[in-house]
Design brief:
Elements lengths: L1 E3 L11 H4 L2 E4 L3 H12 L4 E4 L3 H9 L3 E2 L3 H5 L4 E4 L4 H9 L13 E4 L5 H13 L3 E4 L2 E2 L1 H7 L2 E5 L3 H6 L1 H7 E6 L6 H29 L4 H9 L6 H12 L8 H17 L5 H18 L23
Parallel strand pairs: 1-10, 2-3, 2-5, 3-4, 5-6, 6-7, 9-10
Antiparallel strand pairs: 8-9
Helix pairs in contact: 2-7, 10-12, 10-13, 10-14, 11-12, 13-14
């Protein structure tokens, strides 16, 4: 589904067989799902990741592994980057054996890491100077929706670039929002999404912590709130991690330290107050300083003292 923020217009359809091979750099929880969805849609998919075991799993599904971003880039004219941040985006594009210099002229780089809008603008200009095309396209939906080809994509870029990528976006997105022709607008909208997501997770953790401290049954509390006005998507998605005592990182505490940091930096540039974001950011920092930065972001609940959290397997 394609949604234009200013005029409802769908991109032309193209089949994977005529769209050419696609590259994916970064096979994390979202990137692996994207690569898998592209394979299911019939694309030839080349992928690069620093973890050999993940690449082996991808090859077992029918994908093609690349040893370096440059080796991958030489095989494709459309490249999706799903790494963690701006620094990793720079590294895979412009670092040693980087992809940008190896891509053919006119190739499209779909940059999907959560980054500051200012960085997205600079990245597009840098790629344009190399004869490449950029679509600023951060994503949301988590690993499950990525694997199902149902992500929400918040994208900005030239109409011609979207037309060339119509089959690709059809394969990976449940909703594609076209937010304008100028890179940076997609990252602006993703920044606001992360503000809400980070605050909602922190609020869910605080609410569950108080409920547990006050003697409520955690499972019953979750069921009631999930069917009441106080619920949110993040409450329903993250609280089961707490109830299961399973803090395997689907999205880590450290991710929200980074993402809310981007939000706060942007707000400072606009002299704009964000009291809830600032408080949530401090909560994630507290969790990380206590050693939980690499755990699931729901581990932010561990900052609250004097509560007995459910143990693993005791849901």
């Amino acid at each position: 589904m394609t949604t234009d923020a200013t005029a409802a217009a769908n991109t032309p359809n193209a089949s994977p067989s005529t769209a050419g091979p696609v590259g994916v750099i970064g096979l994390g929880s979202m990137g692996f799902g994207v690569a898998q969805s592209l394979l299911k849609a019939g694309f030839v998919v080349h992928a690069c990741d620093v973890r050999p075991d993940v690449l082996a799993r991808f090859v077992a599904l029918g994908g093609v592994a690349a040893a370096t971003p440059a080796a991958l880039a030489a095989k494709v004219d459309k490249l999706i980057i799903l790494v963690v941040n701006a620094a990793q985006t720079d590294a895979v594009l412009f670092g040693e054996s980087g992809a940008a210099a190896a891509l053919p002229p006119g190739a499209i780089v779909i940059s999907s890491a959560t980054v500051a809008p200012e960085y997205a603008v600079q990245l597009a200009a840098r790629l344009e100077a190399m004869g490449l095309v950029n679509i600023d396209a951060p994503v949301s939906g988590g690993a499950i929706k990525a694997a199902a080809g149902e992500m929400t994509v918040m994208a900005a870029g030239a109409p011609a670039a979207f037309a060339r990528c119509s089959a690709l976006f059809e394969a990976i997105a449940g909703k594609l929002y076209r937010l304008g022709d100028t890179p940076g607008k997609g990252s602006t909208v993703k920044m606001i999404n992360q503000l809400l997501a980070g605050v909602h997770i922190a609020a869910a953790a605080e609410a569950m912590a108080l409920g547990i401290k006050a003697g409520a049954d955690p499972q019953a509390l979750f069921e009631v709130i999930s069917n009441s006005a106080g619920s949110s998507w993040m409450f329903q998605n993250r609280v089961p991690h707490i109830l299961a005592g399973d803090y395997t990182p689907h999205s880590a505490v450290n991710i929200f330290i980074k993402d809310l940091g981007i939000v706060l930096d942007s707000a400072r540039k606009h002299s704009f107050p964000l009291p809830l974001t600032a408080t949530a950011h401090q909560m994630y920092l507290s969790a990380a300083s206590a050693g939980h930065g690499g755990e699931d972001d729901s581990a932010v609940i561990k900052i609250f003292p004097g509560i007995d959290l459910p143990a693993a397997g005791k849901q």
